[in-house]
Specification:
This protein is mainly α and 140 residues long. The protein contains eight helices and four strands; from the N terminus they run H-H-E-H-H-H-E-H-E-H-E-H.
């Protein structure tokens, strides 16, 4: 499960773990979960003018990227709503996709908001660098 902040970092820098995770997701190296509300959130955030300018991308580029992610992701239907669980209500859709999709991990820079709640559902919270090391280890 990728939090929106990881995709923002992936678009804004080609040098970090977030970009490598995005490429690994597109290559199907791990099972990415997506729900309709989450992909809409990704689109809303990634097409903000400040992110488009910083990443030197267009709305069309973002749309193409999200189409690519949707093509390889496991779709998650939100059978149960888990709100409010987090201090930041904007993160609830990430948690709902995580729980409904039975994700093993949430990859985020925002450990503080997710850690306690995710643990209650048997899910790890990992920073991008930690997750990248884990998927590289599995691949070898």
């Amino acid at each position: 499960m990728l939090d929106t902040d990881v995709l923002v970092a992936a678009l804004r820098s080609d040098a970090g773990a977030s970009r490598q995770i995005l490429l690994a997701a597109l290559a199907g190296r791990f099972e990415l979960l997506l729900s309709v509300p989450l992909i809409l959130e990704y689109e809303a955030v990634l097409t903000r003018p400040e992110h488009l300018a910083a990443s030197e991308t267009t709305s069309r580029d973002v749309s193409d990227l999200l189409d690519g992610l949707a093509a390889v992701a496991k779709p998650v239907t939100l059978a149960f709503r888990w709100r409010p669980e987090l201090s930041d209500p904007n993160e609830d859709m990430v948690l709902e996709t995580t729980i409904n999709g039975q994700a093993h991990a949430i990859v985020t820079f925002n450990e503080r908001d997710f850690k306690a709640v995710a643990a209650a559902f048997g899910c790890r919270v990992m920073r991008p660098g930690e997750f990248l090391r884990a998927i590289l280890k599995v691949a070898n």
